Amino acid sequence: MDDTNPTSATAAAQAALIKQAIAQGPITEAYQADPQQVVHELNQLRATEITSFLQYKQHAYMAVSMLAPGLKDDFEAHATLELQHADRLAMRIQQLGGVPIFNPAEIATKAAAVGVRPEQGPTLTDMVIENLLLERRQVVEYTALIRELGDRDPTTRRLLVDILADTEQHASELADYLKRQADTRA
Ligand SMILES: [Fe+2]
Ligand SMILES: [Fe+2]
């Protein structure tokens, strides 16, 4: 093969371009973030979502009080959404060339690193407070990463903003429930 031949040089350049396209998928020279770093952060957030899913499921199993029949359904609905958040983050991790973490011990360690640990208090009110605190931890983490990314990875940013909105809504609902509780007790 003669690389000095302009035709074969063009062919070689084209082959290199295709090879790079296959290896990098959606990551082009326009991508300004560090994909590995973003994958690391997304895995961390995903670990908090899986913990949140498990915690809400646990609370739904345990919420049998006649005093708050709707709470079990609320916990169940939140759990479903947390799993969707984990799925959406996993899809983005894969697109960025990463691997979603699936080892439970590693997931627990990553979630704990940002202050998220599964909790199950003895009363319904305790559970709602635990969920509220977890959602608020997530609000902090999502907001920080959104700021950090700026416009360097618009697709990840949009995903994070979306999940943040759900998370803030959950926190708001839980806080409202606790306010109502306080009002009826007063
Ligand atoms: Fe979530
Ligand atoms: Fe949530």
Structure description:
- The chain has one domain (35-185): Up-down Bundle (Ferritin), CATH 1.20.1260.
- It has helices spanning 6-24, 35-62, 69-95, 104-113, 124-149, 154-185.
- The protein is mostly helical and 186 residues long.
- The mean pLDDT is 94.
- Bound molecules: fe (ii) ion (2 copies).
The distinct ligands, each listed once, are: fe (ii) ion
Sheet having the most strands: none
Please give the CATH architecture: Up-down Bundle
Q: How would the global form be characterised?
A: elongated
Q: Into how many domains do the coordinates divide? A: 1
Q: CATH first level: which class? A: Mainly Alpha
Features:
Ferritin, mainly alpha, 186 residues, binds fe (ii) ion
Write the layout of secondary structure elements.
Elements: H1 6-24, H2 35-62, H3 69-95, H4 104-113, H5 124-149, H6 154-185
Helix pairs in contact: 2-3, 2-4, 2-5, 3-6, 5-6
The structure holds fe (ii) ion (FE2) (2 copies).
Short description:
This protein has helices spanning 6-24, 35-62, 69-95, 104-113, 124-149, 154-185. It is an all-alpha fold and 186 residues long.
